[in-house]
Amino acid sequence: MDRGSGHVVALDVGGTVLKGAVVDSGCHIVSRLRRPTDRERGPDAVVAAVLDMLEELVAEAQTCTGAPPHGAGVVVPGVIDEDRGVARLATNLGWSDVPLVELAQQRLGLPVGFGHDVRAGGLAELLLGAAQGAADCLVLPIGTGIAGALVLRSRPYAGAHGLAGEIGHLRVRPDGPLCGCGARGCLEAVASASALASAYVREGSPEEPGSAEEVLRRAAGGEPVATRLLTEAVEALADALTAYITLLDPEVIVLGGGLGRADERYLLHPLRDAVAARLTFQKVPRLVTARLGDDAGCLGAALLAWLKLGVPVADLGPSQTS
To answer: Least crowded by CB within 10 Å, which of 66, 81, 90, 300?
Structure first.
């Protein structure tokens, strides 16, 4: 199918908010909607909220474009089975084995593309954002946790069981803090935004900050404890990325998430130097900051909708005439 002048609807299902969009054939968002997930009412209520939101997006598309959408795309967190269209497990939503694609297609009467939120966001950064022009990249959101989107030959890679990209659970410090997954010293337990803030609190420093951004601000001001903790986080990230680069040889690594958007002087630049210092024969990839921000999930969902409709990956970049 040629995208032509059509449009699709896209839905990014988050832990607390549903972010929806109508996306045109040039991969531009023409309308946005946001609604709560209703997760406090239980998993069935979340499914109902998702289906209602998709139906609302279809009506919005008709209103703002004058035509029905060609299809829909939905991205969700947790463990998914992309081939079967099933959300296997999402602890923050209470989901277990939800046949989301079947339910959505029954409600809408449209083809529905489906994928993992982080992997879809990675595809969007590759085709529309900071990694444009590359065929292989790692998109690394660093926020409350640390996730990874492996995009290989312009397609998100899920792995044999839908678990590929869990770089946050590489054990970079075997004697380090306990991670939420049950292991010790995972990258997420050492270098995520929440880990950085928690480590500062554990140091017993006065006027404890409430966020990683505050730790960065104090490190920028030269405070010794904050500076040391930030350096340790950068070193742990560099160790994990060195392993990734050695195994998969990406062209680009894109830093995203709340911490990934920090001033480049305090994270991106020292991380780039630390990675380069560790590599010998390996090619140093470009390290850049994510460009799409909160729109990455919706744009990724839109791209999955076009893929579901048979649009070739090579045609999924920005429209040449848009």
So the answer is: 66
